[in-house]
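Reading a protein record of the kind used here takes little practice once its layout is understood. The reader may check this reading against the record printed directly beneath this paragraph.
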Amino acid sequence: MGFHLQRIANAKRMVKRTLSSSETTMVPKGHFAVYVGEAEKKRFVVPISFLKHPSFQNLLSQAEEEYGFSHSMGALTIPCSEEAFIELACNLQSS
């Protein structure tokens, strides 16, 4: 159990270096913004390279099923917990 919590803490530190949760409107070239979270949405800026990974494509399919193409928030929203998204992003960054 302690190992799992330590892994999540290390993953969060690593992802915060590569993903921006800034609320600014600037998105660097080669990246795109997504909102993640179940109750409170948090903005992340991720590399476009994530789009080629099947696990990220699965998240996009889930977002399409839940929100369709016309979401009231007006932005790409991923329907999963922040912790699950961070763990996925860490796995994608290391591959």
Summary: DSSP finds three helices and three strands in the chain.
